[in-house]
Design a protein that fits this description.
4-stranded antiparallel beta sheet, globular, 43% strand, mainly beta, 8 strands
Length: 89
């Protein structure tokens, strides 16, 4: 019997080489490569970056590194998440 998390892995369809999984307030979130998905969402979203997709500690935002790893984008994926960009100088 497939679990909610198994279903998310199937829907994401990523290589899962770099994977981050969190469950907050009963909602599963999964980020891998440059994609993300949460329970209750039919299609994956994009992190905005090209690699190293990762979830914030509260699972409400996802990050993605931009080519060259000099910038990281934060994308809100759930209510209460944050959105923005950080650039290293």
């Amino acid at each position: 019997m497939a679990t909610e998390l198994d279903e998310l892995y199937r829907k994401l369809g990523a290589s899962l080489a770099e994977t981050d999984v969190k469950r907050v307030d009963g909602v599963w979130s999964l980020a891998s490569d440059s994609k993300w998905i949460t329970t209750g969402v039919d299609k994956p979203g994009k992190t905005g970056g090209t690699c190293s997709g990762s979830l914030s500690p509260d699972g409400r935002s996802v990050t993605g590194l931009i080519h060259g790893h000099e910038r990281v984008l934060l994308t809100r994926i759930c209510s209460g998440g944050v959105q923005g960009e950080v650039k290293w100088v």
